[in-house]
Amino acid sequence: MSSDDRLNRFLARAEQILERIERLLPPAPPETDWSAPAYRWRSDKASGWLEAIHDPQVLSLGDLLCMDSQKAAVIRNTERFLSGHPANNVLLWGSRGTGKSSLVKALLPVYAKQDLRLIEVDKEELLRLPEIMREIAERPERFILFSDDLSFEASVPGYKPLKAALEGSLSGLPENVLIYATSNRRHLLPEYFSENRETTVVDGEIHLGDAVEEKISLSERFGLWISFYPFSQDDYLAIVDHWLQQNGQQMNEQTRLQALQWATQRGSRSGRVARQFAIDLASR
Fold it and tell me: Measuring CA to CA, which residue among 280, 275, 274, 277 is closest to residue 233?
């Protein structure tokens, strides 16, 4: 057998082996469609990618009632960010159903034309924050990384990359990125009564234990805290009336009583409950 024949057989065998290896490798992540206004971070064991959302389901800012101070604070911070001025990462915390995540999403219709983009990141995916930021750091758009219903158990490692990204890492966040998160509790890690025993008093000053300090420090790295509280009965009914009008209906004494009964059954007077009542009434 000539040397050329041996070389050809070797190359053919190598090509067969390479084909087998390629079949075992995971597929390459899809190319990012940068024309979308919103994205969701997806990942598998091998890699992650931005899944485009071309038609995000959001409410308008005008639909979010009885939260004027909260809206003003979020809008002011977001507009500073879009204009290239220093702006804060934001933690929106408080009662469930009071419009925290709706407020963040409602920014999109208003500011998408100013290159605002929203990336939804589940808390399980926060370990991939460095990868996400490398993906978008050189883009001309301005990105809000949005994590909804954020809280961690002490054993969950995802809070550490978040803590480093907010403040504490040499690299930090890119200039075109902010983090907005919502939570039902102000301190994102659980606090236990036993940890209070570590608290000491020195010269009349209270010094918290290391475990408590660690848990408080994560929330404190958000520069802006915005609080949401349960709606009063009058506020709840005003929101019900708004959604009834959106469905071509009017508030009367009967619907008022039904709305209050609906809230009692749900155990909450919130914007979410008000909208759900209006939708249910329209279906009847």
Answer: 274
Q: Could you tell me which residues come within 8 angstroms of residue 134 by beta carbon, excluding any fewer than 6 positions away?
A: none
More confident residue, 30 or 126: 126
Sheet holding 116-120, edge to edge: 48-53, 38-43, 116-120, 142-147, 177-183, 90-94, 224-228
Question: Around Cβ 157, how many Cβ atoms within 10 Å?
Answer: 9
pLDDT for residue 245 is more than 70:
yes
Q: Strand 142-147 and strand 224-228: pairing?
A: unpaired
- Which H or E element spans position 249? none
Whole-prediction pTM: 0.79
Strands 177-183 and 142-147: parallel
Calculate mean pLDDT across residues 208-226. 65
Give the containing element (helix H, strand E) for 49.
Answer: strand 48-53
Residues in Cβ contact with 98 at an 8 Å cutoff, skipping those fewer than 6 apart:
67, 228, 229, 230, 231, 270, 271, 272
CB 176 within 8 A of CB 142: yes
Residue 121's pLDDT band (boundaries 50, 70, 90)?
very high
Burial per residue of 226-256, b for 16 or more beta-carbon CB atoms within 10 angstroms, e otherwise: bebeebeeebbbebbbbbbeeeeeebeeebe
